[in-house]
Known about the structure:
This protein has about 230 residues and is an all-alpha fold. It is about 80% helix and about 0% strand. It has two domains: about 20-95, no CATH class; about 105-225. It has helices at about 15, 20-25, 30-55, 60-70, 75, 80-95, 105-145, 150-230. Mean pLDDT is about 70; it is low at about 1-20 and about 95-100.
Amino acid sequence: MTPDTTDAQPTTTTAQLYPQAAASGRDPSRAIETKKAQATANRDRITTAIVALQRQDQPVNVQSVARAAGVHPATLRRNPDLLAEVQRLRDASWQQPPARHADPEATASSKALKARLLASQQEGVELRRQLTQLRRDAHQALGTASTHPDHGMVEELQREAAELRVQLMDERDTTRGLQETGRDLADELTATREIARGYLRDLDQARADLRATRQELMKLRTQIATDCRRMS
């Protein structure tokens, strides 16, 4: 008995999605993996560029990050999370108050926190790179499993990939915590600077009052000396 296929939905294959690659004899799935690997590499370069620009106290914006990463600005804009981080850092640099009269202890704490954050971001880049490599190795191992089965190798790769995912999630949590602490410290530093500016305004006013008092005292002394001469 012939099965009824009237309501069967057509299946779209990878070759149908990428007819040019299939027609040329190339494996479309390999082209997809290549594009994914390139996108991951671009993200890593962009993240590394952001960290490097921050460490060097260089301006952080779309153009500077793209130039440092060696990618087109459009590549950065295709990664909304990285674009948002670049825009946040750019806006923060515009809104940062002048550093004069800043509390040295608060400034030192801010620099130490920034160094920890940069180290955490750099470690995140390395973890993502390792995870990408493990995925690539696992894909190759699974692709040859039918002719050269090595279940132990596949399981080991999968275990290492799972461990790296956990490490990456922990690193992201640490980075978020450092960013929140950094924002709190920045708020405290801004408040400290505002208090210092208030003290400076009060000091300027006190100096002005002192000058006025001295002038009045000099006038009084002159008047007393004049009166003494008249009396003699």
